[in-house]
Amino acid sequence: MDDPVERMKLVLNESMDDREFPMIGVDNMDPKLYNAARSGNVEHLTSIVDANPGTNLNRCLTPQRNTVLHIAVKFEQQKIVQRMIQQWPSLISQPNSKGDTPLHMAARAGNHDLTKLLTPASNLTEGNSAIEEGNPVRQAGGVALRMSNSEGSNPIHEALKKSHKEVALHLLAFEERHGLARDVNMAGESLLYLAAEAGLDEVVNRIIDIGDYSTRGPDGQNPLHIAVIKSRFWAG
Question: Which of the two residues, 215 and 76, has the higher pLDDT score?
Fold first, then answer.
């Protein structure tokens, strides 16, 4: 299984996908596993895992410390994601070298379906027994939702930076449980500030309705500054 040529291809794929980060010394993911996750080949992935009983997928990492679930989310392979979270739910909250969990990646990409799969809602899909109160999937999703990456951003920050309204609203549905609206990232951006900057009025109203939120923005700005700047622009 340890083909040096295939392993080098994996290293090159990772470095090209993420050029700003240097490669690190963890690269023990089988290239066949990587390719199965990337291509969405559930049968191939299952056969690889079944042929290696006792495999700990939390330790099968690419050079950028991505797990199989990170790869499946990145390439939007929903069937692989479903299989992974059913058998290895702890992968949902495992960060890569940037501190991104698979949920950060799904939110940043604006993939509503994958975001819903990775977050702890009991009503995501009717009859889906994998998403229930007390289930490991729900618990791992709740952990990932509260996690900050190397930029100090939680998954909702990532959705708002890219103006993904539906993803942000879905994740904000868990606000009462997790107190996420108070989070401010390392750039000094609160959720309310990012929502106002993106012009997402529905998200702004949802955050205000929560009642316990930060208004902070970078360089001392706040959502009111954003509103004034935009009104001047529109008036001109």
Answer: 76
Q: Convert the pLDDT of each residue in 2-11 to its tens digit.
A: 565 555 555 5
- Beta-bridge partners for 184: 190
* Inter-residue contact 62 to 27 (CB < 8 Å): yes
Q: Which residues, 6+ apart, have CB-to-CB distance to 15 below 8 Å? A: 23, 63
Structure tokens that stand for 127 in this block? 């009859």
Which residue, chain included where needed, has tokens 């900057």?
Answer: 197
Residue 116: name the closest of 134, 137, 91 by CA: 137
For residues 86 and 130, the answer to whether their CB atoms sit within 8 Å is yes
Give strand ranges (E) for the chain. none
Q: Would you give the DSSP letter of residue 190? A: B
Q: Are residues 167 and 158 in contact, defined by beta-carbon separation less than 8 angstroms?
A: no
Taking the CB of residue 9, how many other CB atoms lie within 10 A of it? 14
Q: Are 160 and 200 in contact (CB under 8 A)?
A: yes
Q: How many helices (H) and strands (E) does the chain have?
A: 14, 0
The residues with which 138 forms a beta bridge, in sequence order, are none
Q: CA–CA separation, 62 vs 144, rounded Å? A: 20
**Domains in the chain, CATH or no CATH each:** 1-147 (1.25.40.20), 153-236 (1.25.40.20)
Beta pairing partners, 190: 184
Confidence of residue 124 (pLDDT cuts 50, 70, 90): very low
